Amino acid sequence: MNKAFWGGLCILICGGLYLLSNSIAATLPNHFQAYLEFEKNIPQIPWFIVIYNSYFILLALNFLLIKSPHTIRSLSITMMASSAIACMIFVLFPGEMGFSRTSNIEGFEVLYTNLHSLDIPHNLYPSLHITFSTLSAFAIIHQTKQKLLHYLLILWVILISFSVVLTHQHHIFDVITGFLLAWLTIKFVYLRGVKA
After folding, report:
1. For the chain, what are the domain ranges?
2. How far is CA 6 from CA 95, 136, 165, in A?
3. To which H or E segment does residue 95 belong?
4. What is the pTM of this model?
5. For residue range 164-179, what is the model confidence (pLDDT) as tens digits?
6. Residue 10: closest CA among 78, 63, 66
7. DSSP 121-166
8. Which bin fits 107, alpha (ψ -120 to 50), beta or left (φ > 0)?
9. pLDDT digits over 145-156, tens only?
10. CB-based contact 86:128 (threshold 8 Å)
11. How far apart are the C-alpha atoms of 156 and 55, rounded to whole Å?
12. Which helix (H) or strand (E) covers residue 63, if one does?
């Protein structure tokens, strides 16, 4: 099956699971705090929403830079597996956001309003923004040889990891667990799929 099929299936499954788990988590009576009090004093830096949204460009780059349909298949399966694991956690342990959300930010109103309207703040840990960014960058690095590109991708993921906190979308624990989920699924799903 071609890259478009796997990409479309991945978007459908991951998006569906995320929205479903988010709506379920919002109805649950108990939400769990997984942040330290000092994190509530981390300032919001509005323009980091641009880096936050650049995540979608990083995901799309897989289809431009990875030529092998087999690799795209493995990456898509890995993302769907990551999404399934994360969404189970979201429902079993829905998170509590420590930040007060602000949408009326001059110059970025539309971006923040759209983000907050789609994303109820309970799908916090692990951060799928971090997991999917890491998976995407790893797959591109794994399948290409340009060292400069590899360094830029690593820097990009680091910036995205800062952006999820500085836009007040996630806490530090969410970032750490997002990287952990990426590492686990790379090791046990992606690499095995590529070698199969």
Report:
1. 45-94+104-195
2. 30, 14, 30
3. strand 95-96
4. 0.96
5. 999 999 999 999 999 9
6. 78
7. TT--SS-HHHHHHHHHHHHHHHH---HHHHHHHHHHHHHHHHHHHH
8. left
9. 999 999 999 999
10. yes
11. 9
12. helix 55-65
